[in-house]
## 1
Amino acid sequence: MNGHLQVFADPAAVAEETARRFVGIMAQRPGERFSLALSGGSTPQRFYRLMTTSPWREQIDWGNLHIFLADERFLPLDHPDSNYRMIRETLIEPLAAAGGDVVRLSVGNIHPMPTDGTVEESAIRYESELKQYFGYNPPCFDLIVLGMGPDGHTASLFPGHTHPVGPWVLPMHNSPKPPPTRLSLSLEVINQARHVLFLVTGHDKAEALSTIRQANEETLPAGTVQLDAGELLWLVDEAAMGLAKA
Ligand code: 6PG
């Protein structure tokens, strides 16, 4: 498999390690702006909530943090299944409620994927937004947090789907995980990141994780993440390793 893997007792320990890693990675370049791309799903929610609590929130340079989406479900941003809404409810709003001097996450630093117009138009608009941040160089996120589905998908890159090479943001149709229409960072963009953390917990991920760990040639999308120059780390719990009962 690509990258390194670390096993933790349970989802809480995975979230703690993710927070510790994030703080450490951001501290490597103090005072510089930092691009963080976040995923949807249930697994990263513990990490998002943890970042809003002490002692983590005091260690994050919120003023320099830019939050992007790794993928989005093509739904209104206030829809209960919207990834942005989940990030707003688990991270952005609790932070605002915590207030205080250390917590300054500016609205202009939050970059949701647009979900109005057609999905193709939205992909182009988000790519333009990325170009405003990264310039016309290939985007190099400081950190991308990814999950993995039981079928081995990651972000909104699903097994058996083919994607054009070139666009930074892909409009996706026919997703087997609802809703069928989505937006996703491309594999090429993910692979250019400085750091990627895969968060994988639960028994339902054990089969896909085992396939990826044993594969000589990667076929599942999560297994095809291979960073050009960055550091790829899988933070998984014992259940996802098939080591513990659900
Ligand atoms: C989404 C995702 C998706 C997710 C995985 C894992 O919008 O659904 O971003 O790629 O990360 O499906 O989801 P869970 O953490 O809920 O298992």
Note: The radius of gyration is 17 Å.
## 2
Amino acid sequence: MIRDQEMMNAFLDTVSSFVRDTLVPNEDLVAETDAIPESIVAQMKDMGLFGLTVPEAYGGLELTMEEESLVMFELGKTSPAFRSLIGTTVGIGSQGILMDGTEEQKQAWLPRLASGEVIASFALTEPGSGSDAASIRTAAVRDGDEYVINGTKRFITNAPHAGVFTLMARTNPDDKGAGGISAFIVDARTPGISFGKNDRKMGQRGAHTCDVIFEDCRVPAANIIGLQEGRGFKTAMKVLDKGRIHIGAICVGVAERMLNDALNYAIERQQFGQRIADFQLVQAMLADSKAELYAARSMVLDAARRRDLGEDIVTEAACCKMYASEMCGRVADRAVQIFGGAGYMTEYGIERFYRDVRLFRIYEGTTQIQQIIIARNMVRAATA
Ligand code: COS
């Protein structure tokens, strides 16, 4: 759903110019220094990028899912590290508070998230719990008006920058599954929280992840999202459903960038006395990429529109995440192939994208987890 087409077009133009004029020229610097310059972070705040999904009542832009997807198509056309910086605040770090939080919890955090003053992070994954999210062991034990939290969270995106965590922890040790989990809002400055070293990753330099360790960390009982124990797993799943459409949209944006770079290279590059763009085997790679990109874009927009209408989109969100991230991987591979030897060389930039996009098939639920979600829902619907 697009609320005001004219305003949306103006905002998309602003994002598109920002990507072209500011972010793209800084891609190499970000990769070399493993950091996004402060001046760029400030511009992102000014543009409202941290508050894309926060309701206007709390100072955000309140984009619909369709609008958010269109913005991600644009923001995707540069190094994924830039999107990653706003990604957890716009998505998985804030949406639990928005979806299931009390009014007081929303008032306390959403305005500061929308302005970019505080970065939100989503702490679900643990050393022993990745795809099997219901098996988390981080424990939250009630003690008067507080919970005492102990455990380790792993690979937490933006943890080194976070001001607040949406933390999933087990409040009922007798329930080893999804029902024993609660979601907490945890101020990152709470005593008892420490951070591991930044992880060294395959790609996405400039985006940071690390372990977050909770040792006798005391969190007020008033910080359980929605003040209800045992609802945390469902909150996490709802947050991830939305996040998966968002990731699908980003994959479309990055794939468009890579395909565009490959097309320009194929037009410029001469071999056997002609430009390689005129060779049919190169054309096949361009055409397959274009068609798959179009399919992913259409899927994302369809799922986003359905979500805006209030439909159940669990299956569609998983389809988007699976198809768009796999498509993005294939486009990255073909782009490197079209660049040939240059595709393997750092200075041409395409090898960096090839490494950067590998993560999309893994985080927020691997391709295999999406397959399980899709097929389970099919079987359930057919046998209900
Ligand atoms: N929305 C709302 N509720 C949901 C839900 C969703 N999308 N998916 C599951 N639930 C509910 C179920 O209805 C069930 O509730 P009841 O017990 O009341 O029936 C409960 O949650 C448990 O669901 P389920 O039995 O399906 O859980 P599983 O342990 O089988 O796990 C998967 C389900 C595999 C889908 C889940 O663990 C998952 O998404 N894993 C990947 C995690 C991930 O993406 N990690 C990335 C880390 S963040 S970057």
Note: Strands lie at 120-123, 139-143, 146-157, 164-170, 181-187, 193-195, 209-220, 270-271, 274-275.
